[in-house]
Amino acid sequence: MDIEVYGEYKKTAWCPGCGNHDVMKAVRQALAGLDLAPNKVAHVSGIGQAAKAPHYIDLNGFNGLHGRGLPPAQAIKLCNPELTVIAQSGDGCNYGEGGNHFLAAIRRNVDMTLLVHDNQIYGLTKGQASPTTPEGQITKSQPDGVRNAPFNPIAVAVAMKCSFVARSFSGNIPHLVEMIQLAIRHKGFALVDLFSPCVSFNKVNTFGWYKQRCQELPEDYDPTDWAAAMQVAQEFGERIPIGVIYRNDRPTLDASLPVLQKGPLGRQPVDKDGLRALMQSYT
Amino acid sequence: MSHTGRNIVIGGEAGQGLVTIGQMLTRALIRSGYEVVVSQDYMSRVRGGHNTYSIRVHDAPIAAPADAMDVLVALNQETVSLHKHELAEGGIVILDAGLDPEGARAVPVPFKDVAPRPIFENVAALGVLGSLLGVDRPTMEGLVRETFGKKGDKVVGQNMKVLDDAWKWAEAHRASCAALPAPKGAKGRMMLHGNEAIALGALAAGVKFCSFYPMTPATSVAQELITKGRKLGVVVEQAEDEIAAINMALGATYAGAKALVPTSGGGFALMTEGVSLAGVMEAPVVIVLAQRPGPATGLPTRTEQADLNLALYAGHGEFPRAILAPATIEDCFHLTHAAFDLTERFQTPVFVLTDQYLSDSYRAVVPFDLDALPPVAEPDFSPGGGPKFKRYKRYELTESGVSPRKVPGFTETLVLADCHEHTEQGNITEDADLRTAMNDKRLRKGEGLHKLVIPPRVSGDAKPDLMLVCWGSSEGPVGEAAEMLRARGRTVGVMSFTQVWPLDPAQFLPALQAAKEVVCVEGNATGQFARLLRQETGFEVSRTLLRYDGRIFTPGWLAERLG
């Protein structure tokens, strides 16, 4: 698919230098590489800076509520298995407001991809701590430093045996493209936690900070080794591993529903004879 | 049979099997051709406490529970103590010979002799009841065979013997209880409660997706779809919370599947942001709100009509909605079916507002004629209809306010559904003129909804001394209370609203103005519907008659207070 088909939006609400610009480039490249037609993709988001993505790319879009991107994304797949479903939102949306949906989506294992723009800060609301802001970091709303221990999305996802867990960085577009493509191709709920630095409100976790730390996992790393993945998931210091950290082939919910073998639910007619027989069962 | 029929109440602790006895007897009565109204009064616990299962049975149509008890089946001593004063004149208590009837007329049953083990006592009680009431015995035997059939011939045989022994034992005590008169109703009717009728109405309308979080008294809507609807191609997903449930439903309708979300007050409170999302996104969704008494956890298993305001005003911002309030089991079916058409047609949330009483109340219902149902609106599944691989005008500004709703994947054009104020293509906008135009467009759909308002059912005397206004499930008890008052010489009319929003005053205001006195009967403490009437029409009812103790309206309770 020609990359131009997904459109290019010069005017966005994102700051110059924001990692989101590079993420969008990577998403376009990934989709083009997978030859996905724009009308066969449902692109879902919540609210936040990252969540504006559906407005800046030519795909079917569902821009829902803050923290609530995952529930409609899963339902879309459960109602039309022919669509490729990609949800895109930030760390606040997915790990804060939508934390329960994040946990449930891992357990439910619908075949879809979640791209979390993780900038370790709240950008849209201008600089409050997010669930992934490190302990002690001073922000406008946490002037004495963040007191809450940070949420480790990779460790949580691996611990829950999430079907696919990857980490990447907007500063390494080829890597990010590869991760997005692997996530989309993977049959199951695929998480890509991707660092996308906020140039305005996070002066600690900057482009340079991530660039210095992000290191690709070695060639011989085995993402099907759960215990090894749990170890890697703990690494968040001078070195932050990026790549496919964990994956398994747990059956997906959508594949387990026989009714979905008949195609999109919306076009399936009312089974009047079945309903008449059902009414008889109440007599 | 007396003009009020016969009221059979089974009382005991949760877990003693009173529901099993009640269900089997109700089914036997319906199969025999009687009319029934079942009301279930239970506490929020799985074991212990005190629950009752009441079956009012009649040879003529009835629509309300009864006041007094004619036959009380006491499964424990507490039931005798609590209800002996509610026995009608000539009423009897059926109880184990080891219990004390506390002075009430009693039929003490030696259950230990009739049932070899306690597990058979339910069937023994059924045999005694069937025999005393003169229920058709082959019908009862068929039911026992059907109920225990899957447990094998041995179990069936044991239960049939217990039924037979109990039946014979009771024959010697027939004098203590008048048999029911011959039934007049049709055969082949369903035994259906409100939530089952809602599930059937949804299936008839083509529901394909249901997301829910369990909450009494709404759970059985989803449960019916799980147990019985799955074969008909419905995906039912138990969500992590009600917030997920409604947001899933909006994803489902975006993908072209009709979606249903059943819940009760507390769960619905969590959904309100999603209701607002449906408003701006112009996403169809049918919300079944089965009311129970609040605030917060309130009386979790009892009934009330206090969430009208919640349904009316849930969701920030301004957008149209419709609220249907079934009064009967047939209404539950037809109004749910209608709700799907309205929500698809106007792309805005539509509510089916019921309550615990109606949710759990079994009646005899003729199977619905599916071919007689009006068609249900559909989204536009056609290919094309917009620029290839570019967004079409999902929110096109139209005269009716309704924009073409295409379905992603079925067309080469792109569908962008959005939660912000947006352009016709669905992109975020902050333009003042466009904001105004979009808001006006959404509200114009309210005019379309207004044209389709279901008028209230008006019955009884024209230009009456007393007009009783009610909405939802209280229609049956109010109607019977009106009959009681008429028997005392008063002229009484009943105006029953099955759609409570929007209202069309032209449909009912003249009738209200023609009545000498108008009393609004509601199951809440503040007269929410009476206030809504005044807000929309300026008409002030003479007074309200309110019940908010968690218990259902009965004709006698109402007549006493209206006398």
Written overview of the protein:
The complex is a heterodimer of chains A (283) and B (563). The N and C termini of chain A lie far apart (57 Å). Chain A is built from nine helices and eight strands. Chain A is of the alpha/beta class. An eight-stranded mixed β-sheet of chain A has the order 2-1-3-4-6-5-8-7, sandwiched between helices. Helices cover 31% and strands 17% of the residues of chain A. Chain A has helices at 19-33, 70-79, 91-97, 99-108, 153-159, 173-185, 207-213, 226-234, 272-280; strands spanning 41-45, 60-63, 84-90, 112-118, 164-169, 189-195, 214-216, 240-247. The mean pLDDT of chain A is 97. In chain A, helix 3 (91-97) packs across helix 4 (99-108). Chain B is α/β, with parallel strands linked by helices and 563 residues long. Chain B has 18 helices and 21 strands. Chain B has helices at residues 18-32, 77-83, 111-114, 121-133, 137-148, 153-171, 194-205, 219-229, 242-254, 265-281, 308-313, 329-346, 356-360, 432-451, 475-487, 509-514, 528-537, 555-562, and strands at residues 6-14, 35-41, 48-58, 69-74, 87-96, 106-109, 190-192, 207-212, 235-238, 258-263, 286-291, 322-324, 350-355, 363-365, 416-418, 457-460, 466-471, 492-497, 499-501, 517-522, 543-546. In chain B, strands 9-8-10-11-13-12-19 form a seven-stranded mixed β-sheet, with helices on both faces. In chain B, helix 7 crosses helix 8 (219-229). The mean pLDDT of chain B is 96. Chains A and B meet through strand 2, helix 2, helix 4 and helix 9 of A and strand 7, helix 7, strand 8, helix 9 and helix 10 of B.
β-strand number of chain A: 8
Strand content of chain B: 15-25%
Widest sheet: strand ordering of chain A: 2-1-3-4-6-5-8-7
Gyration radius of chain A, rounded: 20 Å
Query: How many helical elements of chain B?
Result: 18
The run of helices and strands of chain A is HEEHEHHEHEHEHEHEH
Give average pLDDT of chain B, whole number. 96
N-to-C CA distance of chain B? 25 Å
